[in-house]
């Protein structure tokens, strides 16, 4: 067999049983790998109504057939489980080197189930797999525990996936890291891993990935690496990282100031990538086989946080606990907060989301210092944000309530329905720091439709409207409509979202970084199919590749449908639909007055998907066409139930 290792590893932490399961040709051809394998396991092995913290739930780590090869950026891993934040389908994706190492150890996927009696970690040393005591590691930050494990195993070069204290404390938006700093941020799987008493998976692999046609593979990889040399987005990402977006976001009005009450701020450039590079950048980093190397390493050099250092930040890492909470004057406050979310192992997006929601409740008198334990949740109060991140990570004080996520916190505090208006969530998960009234209407539609809850910039990645103008002719080539490259228009957007969702799903099956295929467009679908075939020796076609992406999106959608979630939740926070974008002292802001015309785009999107516009369920015809007959059977009795009066009364978010 070429490309795939051909087996998955399953570890049951209740029984201690460790099994290796072969992956058949038909299975690999149907799902490719990574996200495809994971979504299939969650759909079939984790009932939609199971408590996400039930020991029987699974956490899956998926690698792809090209993981660990010379194709660009092949170190990605998808982590999937039933989300404790949304109660629905949840996955996230991380870079680093761990994914390649797992492939070298001989596995395409790891499934963890059960719950250990005390904290443990899994040690994978090629085909030798052990469950080891981790009681001495519990409570440690990844930066502390990572070297301890390496010392214990006597190998500096192993790669480790790990949760932080937030995961151990089952904060519902805890995440995982590998190589200390590379996070799979979203949907709260760190809490599920913590609920299983699993601290880490340390891995050493001494094997290789067998390539069917090495000559062809080198030819394709060399060609693609040449293309990156002149790719405009690659150059920006490498030079100033994803913080290159700050000044663009401020100009185009999608900078999420004070929980999206405004889209710009006169001081935004204080935290721009350019300023970061001049003041606190220590060095640049890249994940496995990455020609872009967008990673940053930061060291604060002055002020009260002088000497603090950490991996990052990314745009979505820095913005939520920075400007979304009204902090901009001293960028060191922002870098410090990003460092804290890393150390605790928190999804920075959700963490900033829940804190800024609470700040807006405070602003509007829905909560007072009586609720917050005396904390003044005023905008820009950096000290309070620092306190709350610590409280959330440790589940202490008011932070213990916020650790439940914004929608649940509103209910726990007994707040009126109005409080949910300010949580900026869809299906219980907050949106990233990107206001669709400026970032683009395609992004807005994708936020409403994403299959992992409130969804975000890493789901359908409508970069054809963000960076599309830098690639003249690309929108015409892929979508048949060049005008779709303009962000604040509905032209071509329903098809763009349909196309990009499918494309991103297959990219996540290969487990390559989407910055190679979206932000930058140096690698297109035909290139991906070319290197997939060179590695595996098979004959995937572009049509088959795209159909696999569509299959995955439909399967994940069906998981939500089994929870009675459909068209009623296909929306974005009302703020984006109702509040025209106000000015905020930036005279070059381009989107004053904009709202998101979501309803103009939804009907066409359902048509492209062949989903029923009354329920949002995939049609039986579509499911059967995609080889998902068993899913069609599961959904059949639920279609009419969805339209019943009892179901209509359900709230918009899930837990
Ligand atoms: S582009 Fe950035 S996130 Fe993606 S693989 Fe490269 S370094 Fe990692």
What gap, in angstroms, lies between the N and C termini? Answer: 42 Å
Query: Which structural category do the helix and sheet elements fall into?
Result: alpha+beta
Instruction: Supply the CATH superfamily name of the largest domain.
Output: Aldehyde ferredoxin oxidoreductase, N-terminal domain
Mean pLDDT across every amino acid position: 95
Largest β-sheet summary:
6 strands, mixed
Number of helices: 30
Radius of gyration (CA) equals: 23 Å
Shape: globular
Descriptive keywords:
Aldehyde Ferredoxin Oxidoreductase Protein, subunit A, domain 3; 6-stranded mixed sheet; 17 strands; Aldehyde Ferredoxin Oxidoreductase,  A, domain 1; 42% helix; single chain; 655 residues; Aldehyde Ferredoxin Oxidoreductase Protein, subunit A, domain 2; binds iron/sulfur cluster; 30 helices
Overview of the molecule:
The protein is α+β, with helices and mostly antiparallel strands. It has three domains: 198 residues, Aldehyde ferredoxin oxidoreductase, N-terminal domain (Aldehyde Ferredoxin Oxidoreductase,  A, domain 1), CATH 3.60.9.10; 173 residues, Aldehyde Ferredoxin Oxidoreductase Protein, subunit A, domain 2 (Orthogonal Bundle), CATH 1.10.569; 190 residues, Orthogonal Bundle (Aldehyde Ferredoxin Oxidoreductase Protein, subunit A, domain 3). Helix content is 42%, strand content 12%. The chain contains 30 helices and 17 strands. The strands form four sheets. Strands 2-1-6-3-4-5 form a six-stranded mixed beta sheet, with helices on both faces. A six-stranded mixed beta sheet has the order 8-7-12-9-10-11, with helices on both faces. It has a three-stranded antiparallel beta sheet with strand order 13-14-15. The model has no long low-confidence stretch (mean pLDDT 95). The structure holds iron/sulfur cluster.
């Amino acid at each position: 067999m070429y490309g795939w290792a051909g087996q998955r590893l399953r570890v049951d932490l209740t029984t201690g049983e460790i099994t290796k399961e072969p992956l058949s040709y038909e299975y690999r051809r149907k799902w490719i790998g990574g996200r495809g394998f994971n979504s299939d396991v969650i759909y079939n092995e984790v009932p939609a109504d199971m408590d996400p913290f039930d020991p029987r739930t699974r956490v899956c780590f998926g690698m792809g057939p090209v993981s660990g090869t010379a194709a660009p950026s092949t170190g990605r891993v998808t982590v999937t489980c039933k989300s404790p934040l949304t109660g629905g389908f949840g996955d996230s994706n991380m870079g680093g080197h761990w994914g390649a190492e797992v492939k070298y150890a001989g596995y395409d996927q790891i499934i963890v189930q059960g719950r250990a009696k005390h904290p443990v970690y899994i040690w994978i040393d090629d085909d030798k797999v052990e469950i080891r005591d981790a009681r001495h590691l519990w409570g440690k930050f990844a930066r502390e525990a990572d070297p301890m494990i390496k010392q214990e195993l006597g190998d500096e070069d192993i790669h480790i996936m790990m949760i932080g204290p937030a995961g151990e404390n089952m904060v519902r938006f805890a995440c995982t890291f590998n190589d200390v700093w590379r996070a799979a941020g979203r949907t709260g799987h760190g809490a599920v891993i913590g609920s299983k008493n699993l601290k880490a998976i340390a891995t050493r692999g001494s094997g290789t990935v067998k390539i069917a046609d090495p000559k062809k593979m080198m030819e394709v990889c060399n060609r693609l690496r040449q293309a990156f040399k002149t790719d405009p987005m690659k150059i920006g990402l490498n030079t100033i990282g994803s913080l290159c977006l700050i000044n663009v976001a401020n100009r185009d009005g999608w900078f999420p100031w004070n929980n999206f009450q405004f889209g710009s701020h006169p001081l935004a450039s204080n935290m721009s990538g350019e300023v970061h590079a001049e003041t606190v950048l220590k060095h640049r980093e890249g994940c496995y086989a990455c020609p872009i190397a967008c990673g940053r390493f930061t060291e604060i050099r002055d002020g009260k946080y002088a000497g603090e250092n950490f991996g990052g930040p990314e745009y979505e890492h820095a913005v939520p606990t920075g400007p979304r909470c009204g902090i901009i004057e001293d960028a060191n406050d922002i870098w410090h907060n990003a460092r804290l979310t890393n150390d605790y192992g928190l999804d920075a997006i959700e963490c900033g989301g829940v804190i800024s929601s609470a700040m807006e409740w405070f602003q509007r008198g829905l909560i007072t210092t009586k609720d917050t334990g005396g904390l003044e949740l005023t905008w820009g109060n950096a000290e309070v944000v620092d306190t709350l991140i610590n409280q959330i990570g440790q589940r202490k004080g008011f932070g213990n309530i916020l650790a439940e996520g914004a929608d649940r916190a509103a209910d726990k505090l007994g707040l009126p329905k109005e409080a949910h208006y300010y949580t900026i969530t869809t299906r219980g998960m907050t949106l990233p720091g990107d206001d669709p009234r400026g970032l683009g209407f395609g992004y807005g539609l994708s936020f409403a439709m994403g299959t992992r809850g409130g969804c975000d910039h890493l789901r359908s990645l409508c970069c054809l409207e963000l960076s599309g103008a830098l690639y003249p002719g690309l929108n015409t080539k892929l979508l048949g409509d060049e005008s779709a490259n303009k962000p604040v228009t509905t032209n071509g957007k329903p098809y763009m979202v349909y196309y990009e969702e499918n494309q991103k799903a297959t990219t996540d099956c290969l487990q390559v970084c989407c910055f190679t295929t979206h932000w930058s467009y140096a690698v297109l679908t035909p290139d991906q199919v070319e290197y997939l075939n060179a590695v595996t020796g098979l004959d995937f076609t572009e049509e088959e590749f795209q159909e696999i992406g569509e299959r995955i999106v439909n399967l994940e959608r069906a998981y939500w449908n089994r929870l009675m979630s459909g068209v009623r939740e296909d929306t974005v926070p009302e703020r984006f639909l109702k509040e025209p974008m106000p000015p905020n002292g930036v005279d070059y802001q381009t989107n004053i007055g904009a709202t998101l015309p979501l309803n103009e785009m939804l009907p066409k999107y359902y048509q492209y998907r062949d989903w029923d516009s009354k329920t949002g369920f995939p049609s039986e015809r579509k499911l059967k066409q995609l080889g998902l007959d068993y899913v069609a059977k599961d959904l059949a009795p639920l279609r009419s139930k969805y339209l019943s009066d009892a179901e209509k009364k359900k709230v918009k978010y899930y837990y």
